[in-house]
Design brief:
single chain; mainly alpha; two-stranded antiparallel ribbon
Length: 506
């Protein structure tokens, strides 16, 4: 498969001068003020917005995926032990301080992406061509995506929909209700103008599509309907209305031609990237530029793969990793209790597999569980020889069809507008064809989401929105009324001259 390499666009800011002769457009130079004049230049700005999805190591070990996965009961933060990347252990132990550097980079990553999307939206001319219309729609999708991530992690955040003048830099947090309203507006408008996945060429499959916009819009409505969000925020409509709106968006995806992969184990295989089940992926590439510990943004690979692999192994099949994102014994027990070996071994691999591929020893630091994430396995053939840790080209599956089916089943069940049973069984029967459900409860859907989507960064947010986080994560350190969201980075509060306020109990 051809990999799409997304590079950041360097935007140079020009300052104005009083003398007219200094205001002449420089010949042969492009500044932000005179750059976005052609369709090609607008596209380069859009590529810059896409590219901010990629970086996971550019300061502070900023993996957005790890920050979503570590607080769940699916994952165990291990690495080399408690002293290895303490900012990650703090997240797994719910000892998250406002000065945590990984949280700071998570915040910045999303606002960098929002800024870049806003630049495209401020400059693109929808009357120029159909492509320009699509670029605007993609920028709206990306802005909505980044804002949805910010709401899930932080709650209320500054809502910025244009470029700011210096006297507007110190922004307070806007109510999450207003941010959700912007997300809904952006995704509704984007869905009207985005192409279907089937209309994209093979080298364009990294781009947002109508199905991705419908799926993310349905997910936003589902969150607005969920118990925690209904309790925490003052939305203009009752929960049932949002469940109905969510179901309607998911139905659009279901009717758009997506399918489940036949084999669960294929979903995260390289040969199935952007496959029939994929709705939106973050693209990674094998660019042999060498490691750059001062600035990981120059690399196009997925460093989370390196960070998830077994420590100290030596095989031709799997390369040694850093062992941070181990699969919990609790998740393994959930698979075994259900008799779900297909999803167990599609999600995790253990010591038997390491021995089978020729590993004779591996490190077992404090916290070692015996199980590693197969969805981010460091396969030797997916990286470069000279600098493998930077160049794994495993894509992130951010939205896939099984997730949509289960979300739609939840919306149907809660609203009474449809039958959730065939949707849940469609997902379940791929893994356990001889054990379909005869009826569906909310507890069934919760279990199916855990087994199906484990180690993909969904579990923690599901538990929060259902109101189950305290009961399921309390033994891990979760405190209700605090840990539903992360702290606002202290340095951002300081930089805002106090306009940003901290989340409760931090």
């Amino acid at each position: 498969m051809k990999k799409i390499v997304l590079f950041s666009l360097l935007i140079v800011f020009a300052t104005s001068c009083e003398k007219e002769w200094l205001d002449l457009e420089p010949i042969g130079q492009k500044f932000e003020t005179n750059y976005y004049e052609t369709e090609e230049e607008i596209f380069s700005g859009l590529v810059a917005a896409y590219s901010i999805l990629q970086p996971k190591y550019y300061s502070g070990w900023s993996s957005y995926y790890f920050l979503a996965n570590f607080p769940s009961d699916d994952a165990k933060v291990v690495g080399g032990g408690p002293g290895d990347r303490p900012e990650y252990h703090a997240i797994g132990n719910f000892n998250i301080a406002p000065t945590n550097p990984a949280v700071l980079q998570l915040w910045r990553r999303n606002f960098y992406g929002i800024y870049r999307a806003n630049v495209v939206l401020a400059n693109a001319n929808p009357e120029a061509s159909q492509k320009s219309v699509e670029y605007i729609a993609e920028a709206k999708f990306l802005r909505a995506y980044f804002y949805f991530e910010l709401i899930r992690f932080f709650g209320d955040v500054p809502l910025i929909t244009g470029t700011l003048s210096p006297d507007e830099y110190n922004r307070p947090r806007d109510p999450a209700e207003d941010v959700f309203a912007q997300i809904i507006a952006d995704l509704t408008e984007a869905a009207d103008d985005l192409p279907a996945k089937s209309q994209l060429a093979g080298d364009e499959l990294y781009r947002a599509t109508k199905g991705a916009a419908n799926a993310l819009l349905g997910k936003a409505y589902l969150y607005m309907a969920s118990p925690y969000y209904q309790q925490e925020y003052d939305f203009p409509e009752p929960a049932n209305n949002y469940y109905e709106l969510a179901a309607a968006e998911f139905e659009k995806v279901i009717n758009a031609g997506y399918e489940l992969e036949d084999n669960y184990d294929d979903i995260w295989q390289y040969s199935h990237e952007n496959g029939v089940e994929s709705i939106f992926e973050i693209e990674y590439a094998n660019i042999d530029r060498g490691g750059d510990w001062g600035n990981g943004r120059v690399n196009g690979g997925n460093i989370d793969v390196q960070m998830s692999g077994p420590r100290g192994i030596s095989t031709d099949t799997l390369l040694a990793g850093w062992g941070f994102d181990m699969v919990s014994q609790d998740l393994i027990a959930a698979y075994e209790a259900e008799g779900d070996s297909a999803r167990k071994y599609g999600t995790a691999y253990g010591e038997d597999f390491l021995t089978e591929i020729g590993a004779s020893e591996w490190e077992q630091p404090e916290g070692y569980t015996g199980w590693y994430s197969k969805k981010r396995a460091p396969w030797a053939h997916l990286t470069s020889e000279s600098s493998p840790e930077w160049n794994f080209e495993t894509n992130e599956r951010m939205i896939r069809y099984a997730d949509v089916l289960l979300m739609c089943a939840e919306a149907y069940l809660q609203s009474g507008t449809g039958n959730p049973l065939p949707l849940v069984n469609q997902v379940r029967e791929r893994a356990m064809p001889d054990d379909p459900l005869s009826s569906v409860t909310m507890e069934d859907i919760k279990l199916e989401r855990r087994l199906e989507l484990a180690m993909e960064g969904h579990r923690f947010f599901d538990l929060v929105r259902w109101g189950d986080a305290a009961s399921e994560l309390g033994e891990l350190g979760f405190i209700p009324g605090k840990h539903e969201v992360f702290p606002i980075p202290q340095s951002e509060i300081d930089n805002s001259n106090g306009k940003l306020e901290q989340n409760s109990n931090y």
